[in-house]
Design goal:
It is a single chain. This protein has helices at residues 20-39, 57-67; strands at 5-8, 43-46. The protein has 2 helices and 2 strands. Strand 1 (5-8), helix 1 (20-39) and strand 2 (43-46) form a beta-alpha-beta unit. It is α+β, with helices and mostly antiparallel strands and 71 residues long. A two-stranded parallel sheet has the order 1-2.
Length: 71
């Protein structure tokens, strides 16, 4: 399609409801997706959405730091 980035969601549980295990699973999945995107020459963008780990600024910033991937 020629798009420079893929947009994904950060799970289906809000940051207040997500257990540490659920959060870790989302972080691991995002890191794996970022690896795949980078291998294809793409960046990865995580969409802000309610009922996800980007539903608050604090949670989104923490998620970015936890994933720690340049893609």
């Amino acid at each position: 399609l020629g798009a420079p980035r893929l947009r994904v969601w950060a799970g289906v549980h809000g940051s207040a409801q997500a257990s540490p295990e659920r959060r870790r699973a989302v972080v691991d999945a995002l890191r794996a997706a970022a690896d795949e995107a980078a291998a294809a020459g793409l960046g990865l963008t995580v969409e802000h959405h309610v009922d996800s780990l980007t539903d608050t600024l604090a949670s989104a910033l923490a998620l970015h730091a936890e994933v720690a991937h340049p893609a």
